[in-house]
Amino acid sequence: MKKTKYICEKGLPFDEVGAKICFPLIKKIYFKKSKYQKIEIFDLKFWGKALYLDGVLQTTKRDEFIYHETIAHSALFSHNKPEKVLIIGGGDGGTVKEVIKHKQVKEIILCELDGEVIKASQKYLSEISKKAWQDKRLKIIIKDGKELIKNYLNYFDVIILDLPDPSENAKSLISNSFYRAVKNALAKNGIISVQSESLTNQIGLASLINRNLKKVFKFVRLQRVCIPSYQAGEFSLTLASDFNLDSIKIESLRKKSKGFDLKYYSPEIHFSSKILPLYLKQKIGE
Amino acid sequence: MKKTKYICEKGLPFDEVGAKICFPLIKKIYFKKSKYQKIEIFDLKFWGKALYLDGVLQTTKRDEFIYHETIAHSALFSHNKPEKVLIIGGGDGGTVKEVIKHKQVKEIILCELDGEVIKASQKYLSEISKKAWQDKRLKIIIKDGKELIKNYLNYFDVIILDLPDPSENAKSLISNSFYRAVKNALAKNGIISVQSESLTNQIGLASLINRNLKKVFKFVRLQRVCIPSYQAGEFSLTLASDFNLDSIKIESLRKKSKGFDLKYYSPEIHFSSKILPLYLKQKIGE
């Protein structure tokens, strides 16, 4: 019998617990060293196609919907009338795939720094993006999100920060000043949805994001998500807004989400994911 | 710089996704091949002392409270007057440590098949059991739980099945007939609390437990728990009873749990952990 090969994630940036997760490998499908990072796509046994950036797993076919449904729908359903959506990062197309399910949305801008991620995803990860790239409402801009955001004032209803871990020397995308620029680009009652890291492995980083968001937005609501392919533990995605996120009623979410094709997100999950156990509240400083 | 050594879990029994989790090792503390299994205790970096049975991680100092608080308190707080408690398995003492926090409880029987697990835990895992072994209400019986349970009729208020994964050929502790024997040993309005496996890695096994419990008990309520040291994914613990578990009010749990020293379990978590996303409902057959 052939011995199973495993692909093990290298240590996460800002990792505090040193756990490693390994997946059974079928084969490597793609490799490129772009201007910004090492891009790899593997075919994993059980998990399907998987994207790694600089050795850190971003998404797998098997469980991508958990991350992408939460980051997109928790914000879009919380907004009264989401018409203009900006995604910063998200080059795999998974978030776009969820956003396009909202018929109300008229304009989607995907701003990705690294065009090579989009190219690779379009070619090899269509199981994750599905019809995202064909949607007529989508405009792709290859640019640093920090630059693009300066061009907009009171414009977007929802901004999704679908970003990888910040590199050791580049915490600028989780800084106060970036969040302030994001807030300026939001229209009235706009909502942002943020990849806010692992509460198990990167609690220092997750707390920093939480603190910085709180300096800029009146309402910051962290959501627990269990994403099996991410390293051991509790993962988080966060909503932030000056709009009162606690005023949202479950009946309203039920009405809005009726008929949507969803496997993870639901109005019930929307609320239950906000309940933190004491040990996580203490860690995050809430 | 010395290279970090890792200890990787061997494949779980009934594993369906082939992910492996590895932890940074400081040193091996204990090893014994008992009559039933290979018992190992390691000191892990970040995670502290950890117990492995037959190569499968049972508990670590860092996150044991998540499992033990949930399996003990979700049942004990759901019961009106828990006085007699039986734990089958649980040789590490972590569940006993939680049960003794309930002053109402008058009698605790710990029935563990493998006395060597208790001996090793008493010697090396006192950070997990704390004062459990000194509690005067506790009686330890070294015996097969299937045998012990036959001696009791309408006796226990709460029975906790704190069992490791069943071995390939020994599913008898998750069978209908065992659950029926457990039910016979329960007093009126008694509740059982069951380790019901990973919803990510062992969904076949988790579904089987769920189906079998439903054949025997009127109310079966699965709870999602994220236990970081367990392999990638969603873990579950289940309550089952003929008593209406849905009749429990949050106010009652708040009143009962006031003043308890808890880091994970709370009345809010009690309810939110029962909310399943659609994909898990479908997997488990709910």
Subunit organisation of the chains = homodimer
Number of strands of chain A: 12
Order of strands, widest sheet of chain A = 8-7-6-9-10-12-11
Overall pLDDT confidence of chain A = 95
Overall shape of chain A: it is: globular
Largest interface: A-B, 41 and 42 residues
Order of helices and strands of chain A: EEEEEHEHEHHEHEHEHEEHHH
How would you describe the overall organization of this protein?
- Two copies of one chain form a homodimer.
- The radius of gyration of chain A is 18 Å and the shape is globular.
- The model of chain A has no long low-confidence stretch (mean pLDDT 95).
- Chain A starts with a strand and ends with a helix.
- Chain A contains ten helices and twelve strands.
- In chain A, strands 8-7-6-9-10-12-11 form a seven-stranded mixed β-sheet.
- With 286 residues, chain A is of the alpha/beta class.
- At the A-B interface, strand 2 and helix 9 of A face strand 2 and helix 9 of B.
Write the layout of secondary structure elements.
The structure is a homodimer of 286-residue chains.
Chain A (H helix, E strand, L loop, with lengths): L4 E4 L11 E14 L4 E7 L3 E6 L2 E5 L3 H13 L7 E6 L4 H6 L7 E6 L2 H10 L1 H4 L8 E5 L2 H4 L7 E7 L13 H10 E13 L4 H14 L2 E7 L9 E7 L8 H8 L9 H6 L5 H7 L2
Parallel strand pairs in A: 6-7, 6-9, 7-8, 9-10
Antiparallel strand pairs in A: 1-2, 2-3, 3-4, 4-5, 10-12, 11-12
Helix pairs in contact in A: 6-7
